[in-house]
Amino acid sequence: MASDKVMGAKKSHFDARQFVRDHGIIIGFVIIAVLLSIAEPNFSRPANLINVLRQVSCIGIATLGVGFLIIMNGIDLGLGSTLALVGIMAGRVVSTGVEYGGLGLSTPLGFLAGIATAVVVSLFAGIIVAKARIPAFIVTMGTMSIGRGLALIFAHGMPVAKFPNSFNYLGTESLGPIPWPVIIYVITILIAWFILNKRPLGRYIFAVGSNEEAARAAGINVDWVKIKTYILEGIALGIAGVLFAGRVKSAAPQFASGYELDAIAGCIIGGVSFSGGIGNVSDMIIGALLLGVINNGMDLLGVEAFYKQVVKGAIIVIAVLIDRNRTGRA
Amino acid sequence: MSEIIVDMRNIDKHFGGVHALNSVSLSLKRGEVHALVGENGAGKSTLMKILIGLYTPDSGEILLDGKAVRFRSVKDAQNAGISMIFQEFNQVRVLSVMENIYLGREPKTALGSVDYKRMERDSSELLKKLGVDLDPRVKIRDLTVAKHQLVEIVKAISFNAQIIIMDEPTSALSRNEIEYLFSMVRTLRDQGKCIVFISHKMEEIYSVCESVTVLRDGHFIHSGLVKDISEKELIRMMVDREVNELFPKQECAIGDVLLQVKGLTVKGEFRNVTFDLRRGEILGIAGLMGAGRTELVETIMGARRSDAGHIVYKGKRIVNRITEDAFKRGIAMVPEDRKKNGVFLRLPIKDNVIVSALKKCMRGSFIRRKLERKCFDTYAEKLEIRYSSWRQSCKNLSGGNQQKVAVSRVLNADPEVIILDEPTRGIDVRTKAEIHRLMSALAGTGKAVLMVSSELPEILGMSDRILVLHEGEQTGIVDRKDATADRIMELAVKTSPMEMGA
Questions:
Q1: Which one of A13, A73, A197, A210 makes the best mutation probe of the B interface by having the most chain B beta carbons within 10 Å?
Q2: Total-model pTM
Q3: What's the rounded Cα separation, in Å, for the pair A206 and A267?
Q4: What number is the ipTM of this complex?
Q5: What is the overall mean pLDDT for chain A?
C-alpha cells in the first residue's frame, strides 16, 4: 500500500505517551516496588530482597527458555511438568534413600541426568513442532501431560528425598551474600543474551518468529532453528529443575504445576510479543522480577493465596493489552 | 453526467513528524473513472483512507453532494455510498461468495435465523446486474484472486456505493482478467458511479480512466483529463524528473552457462521445463496467472520438491533440498509476495538486510555491530533505501522501500544466480526504474538473472531471452530480437485463449 509515512516518524521532542508505552513495564515495576516498601517496610530489607531474587532465579531461568520459544512464535506448556520430571529423575539418581529407589550416584551425574531429561522432552516437542508442523501449543499440551505422567511413573506417585548435601548446595547456599541460584541465573542471562543478540541462531529465532515463510524463503533452515531453540529451552529447564529440587531438598511429581503460566506470563509482562518476532532477554528478566516482587509483596502483606491468583491473572491480561497496543494488534 | 459528487478541499494530514498530505484537493464526478497516481508514499492511500473515514484529516473539508460531511468510521462512509476495495481483501475464505457479500448484515427469517434463500436470490441478482458469471454458493477459497476482486466489487455495489475506490486492482490479475475488470469498471461508470482508480500502470490509466489527479510527496500536483496529457508528462509529474528509459537493460557480454534446468517437473504445476541460464544474461519467465512460473522458480530454490528432471549448476548436478542449500550455492531469490515471504515486517530493516548472510557480519563466533553497519550501509546506499533509523521496523517503510530491502537481503548473500519473482509489482515508477537499472548492472557484473514478471513491457524490455509457460507447459523460448508482445502472448495463451480467471 502506498501510505508509508504512517509510522516510524522520528520524534524530535519528548513524547510522554511514547515513553510510557516503551518503558511502561519498568515504570510499573518501580511504582509497585515503592508502594510495597511503603506498605510493608520489611519488603525493602536486604534479606528480603535477596530472598526475592533467590525465589525468582529458578523460574527466571525457565522464563528465559520459554522466552526464546515465544520470540520464535513457539510455546512450551509442558514447562512445569518438565521441571517436576527433572527433579524426579535427578533426584532418583542422587538420592541415598532406598525407599525412593535412589541410585545414590554422584551429584554431577544427577545434574547431568536432570538436564538430559529436560533436553530429551524439549527435543521431542521440538522435532514434532518442526518436522510435523503441528502447532507448538498442541504439541506441548501433549508433552505437559506426558511429562507429568512420567514424573508420576518414575516416582511411583511419591515424593523423592534424601539428597546428598552436595546436590542441595547450589540451591541452598550462597557465595558471600549472593545465593548460588542468583549467580547461576545471572550466568544464564549472559549466555542467553549472547545467543539471542550475537549469534546467528538468535537472529534466526527472531526471523522465524516474525515470518516463518519469509525465513524459509530467505535461506534459513527453519526446522533446524526450531529444534535448536527447543534444545536450548530444555537446557534452561534442566538447570532450573535441578536448582529447584536442590532448594527444596526433595522432588515430587506434583511440583512446579502452573509454572508454565508464570514463565509465559513473565515474558509477556516484560514485553515479549506473544505473536513472535519481538522481545529481548531484558524483557524476560523484568517480567520474572515483577512477578516475583508481586508474589513476595502479597506474601508479606498476608494476602490470601486465592486472591494472589486473581491478581496475577489480572496483571497478565493487562500486560497483553499493553503489548497489543504497542505492536498494533497482536 | 459531469456533476461533482465529492469535493475534498485542502486536506491536511500529519503522522507524527511526517506531513503526509499538504493541503490536497480532489474533485470526483459522477460517471467518471478517476485515476489517482503518484509514487509510493505520495499520499494516495492516505487521501483515500480519509475519504472512507479510516483516518480523520487534521484540517480541510469533504463535501458530498455539496454538503460538508465528516465520517467517523468506514461504516459511516459506506452508508453514504463510498466503498474502498483494498489490495488485501478482507474476506472469509471458508465462507461462500454470498455469505461474504452479506457478512454482518445477513437477511433474517421470521425466526431470526439466516435467510439463505433470500441471500442467494439477492446475490444472484447483484451478480447478474454486473454481468458476473459466478455461483454465489461457491466458497471464496475455491476462487482465483481475480474473482476475489469481483466479489469485493459486488459487495461494494450491494452497499449501493456511488463511489468505489480501487487500490491497484490489477496487480494480481492476468491480462484477460484485467480486460474483464475494465469492462466491469466501464459498466459501473455508465451506471453513473464514480470509480477512483489507484494504479502505477500507465497503459491502464490510458485505457480506462477519463480524469487523473497526480500527487507527489503529499502535495497536489495536477488534475485534468487523461487525454490532455501525455504519458511522459504524467510520469514527469509523478517523479519530478524525466524517466526516459524505464527498462534499461544494457548490452553486456553473455558468458558461460551457469545454471541448466533439464526436464524439471512438479506434478500438477509444470512439466518438462528445460533451459540454460548464462552469466550476464537476464532470462524472463512469462506466462499468465497459474502458468506455474512461481512454482518453477520455487522448485529451483528448493522450496518445492521436483518429481522429475534435474538442475546442473556450474557444471555439477545439484539438489536443493531447502532454500538454505540454494543460498549456500549462490542461488538466491526475491519472492513474489513481499508481505507473505519477502520481508520480515516486524524486524528492524537492518536485520532484514543481513539475515540471509549473517556470516559476513561475524568475526570469531559473534555478530559484530560494525560489520552489520557495513553490510547494511552498503545496500541502503546502493539501493537508496529511504529510512529514518536502521532499527526501524520494516513495516513502516513504503512498498517500494520494502521491496528494496528484500532485494538488498538477497544481494547481501552474494548470489551468482538471482531470481526475481515479480520484482516491481506494486511499486512506484522511480523505484521500478531503479530496480531495472540494478538488474542490468548485476547482469553486467557477470551474474545471471532469472525474472518472473506479469508485465509484458518489463519482460520485453529487460530480458535477453524469454521463456514462456502456458498452464505448466513450456511453450517456447524467445530471443530478445524476436520478442514482441504479440508473440509472447500467443505463446502464453497458446491455442485456446484462457477463460477468465480459470
A1: A210
A2: 0.78
A3: 15
A4: 0.85
A5: 90
